[in-house]
Amino acid sequence: MAYKIDADACIGCAACVDECPVNAISDKDGKCEINPDECIECGACADVCPVDAPKEA
Ligand code: SF4
Ligand code: SF4
């Protein structure tokens, strides 16, 4: 289980990158991606995202 960013919704603001306590989020081609092997499902990225792109998968 991990959070997953909806690429269609993500606007690439990178606000979530700094919020992740385990550095699981990386910027890729103007969108952000979550490494499912590192995500601890804390929900911090979802809390800070302006477009509600990170979803519980
Ligand atoms: S849910 Fe938490 S650990 Fe997982 S990507 Fe978001 S901020 Fe990082
Ligand atoms: S905070 Fe939301 S819109 Fe901004 S990069 Fe992260 S997932 Fe994308």
The domain tally reads 1
Strand portion? 15-25%
Question: Sheet with the most strands?
Answer: 2 strands, antiparallel
Succession of helices and strands: EHEEHE
Query: Which CATH class applies here?
Result: Alpha Beta
Got a strand count?
A: 4
Report the uncertain regions. Answer: none
CATH architecture: 2-Layer Sandwich
Q: N-to-C terminal Cα separation, in Å?
A: 6 Å
Report the oligomer.
single chain
Task: Give the distinct bound molecules.
Answer: iron/sulfur cluster
Amount of helix? 10-25%
Shape: globular
CATH topological fold name? Alpha-Beta Plaits
Kindly name the structural category.
alpha+beta
Largest beta sheet: what is the strand line-up? 1-4
Using the CA coordinates, give the radius of gyration.
10 Å
3D architecture notes:
With 57 residues, this protein is an alpha+beta fold. It has a single domain, classed as Alpha-Beta Plaits (2-Layer Sandwich), CATH 3.30.70.20. Helix content is 18%, strand content 25%. The chain is built from 2 helices and 4 strands, in the order βαββαβ. Strands 1-4 form a two-stranded antiparallel sheet. Strand 2 and strand 3 (31-34) form a beta hairpin. The radius of gyration is 10 Å and the shape is globular. The structure holds iron/sulfur cluster (2 copies).
Descriptive key words:
binds iron/sulfur cluster, 2 helices, 57 residues, alpha+beta
Briefly, what is this?
Helix content is 18%, strand content 25%. With 57 residues, it is an alpha+beta fold. The chain has a single domain, classed as Alpha-Beta Plaits.
